[in-house]
Amino acid sequence: MNQYFLYARKSTDVEDKQVLSIEAQLAELRTYAANEHLSIIEEIVEKQSAKSPGRPLFNAMMSKLEKGEGNGIVSWNPDRLARNSVDGGRIIYLLDTGRISTLKFPTFWFESTPQGKFMLNIAFGQSKYYVDSLAENTKRGLRQKVRRGEWDSFVESRSPCQEFSRWRKNYLSPRYWAYCGVEVPHILV
Question: Model pTM greater than 0.70?
Answer without folding.
Answer: yes
